[in-house]
Task: inverse folding
């Protein structure tokens, strides 16, 4: 008995003028590095609060539910709230783990260490898809909550594949609320000069799908 091959997802290019891509986990294979960095930072924090009994950060379930796709500080607040913990906001210069800023900065330092040791990889199927879209005349944009997005894209050699970008640096400068708010996606559509209704979005995070 023959089994029917699963259908591949298709995109009706006549309905759209642009496709907006999330970076982490869609274009670059950096989502697992973010998850590992969050786990190290959060586990250090949780262990310091309750050395005898503490529940580790789940780099799959907790990552996707509380931090994936969100600005760093929002991710810290969201996950800690799930454990019934509230920290003072602190300041951007905090280096400890007893404030929201400090814990977020700790995660960032771990992430940069992991990226330096492992490098930035891309998903070949996504790059093939992007090239196909551009060959058909569609514009492509990329968005990320990361303030290091441009460095990651340059390191991976794919920055030139996108006509516009909105990242964590832009979001902070323009005071754009993070996902699940749609502000970053609307800003990216604006930079591409395409109405939102004529944009398709490729996203892997729950917060991004909601946006």
Result:
């Amino acid at each position: 008995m023959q089994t029917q091959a699963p259908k591949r997802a298709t995109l009706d290019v006549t309905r759209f003028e642009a496709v907006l891509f999330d970076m982490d986990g869609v274009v670059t294979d950096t989502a697992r590095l973010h998850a590992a960095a969050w786990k190290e930072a959060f586990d250090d924090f949780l262990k310091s609060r309750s050395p005898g009994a503490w529940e580790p950060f789940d780099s799959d379930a907790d990552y996707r539910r509380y931090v994936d796709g969100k600005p760093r500080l929002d991710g810290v607040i969201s996950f800690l709230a799930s454990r019934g913990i509230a920290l003072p906001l602190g300041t951007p210069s905090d280096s400890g783990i007893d404030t929201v800023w400090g814990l977020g900065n700790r995660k960032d330092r771990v992430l940069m260490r992991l990226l330096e040791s492992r490098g930035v990889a891309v998903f070949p199927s996504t790059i093939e898809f992007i090239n196909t879209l551009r060959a058909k005349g569609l514009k492509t944009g990329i968005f990320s909550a990361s303030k290091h997005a441009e460095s990651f894209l340059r390191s991976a050699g794919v920055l030139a594949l996108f006509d516009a970008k909105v990242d964590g640096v832009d979001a902070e400068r323009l005071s754009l609320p993070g996902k699940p708010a749609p502000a970053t996606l609307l800003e990216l559509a604006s930079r591409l000069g395409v109405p939102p209704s004529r944009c398709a979005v490729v996203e892997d995070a729950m917060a991004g799908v909601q946006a």
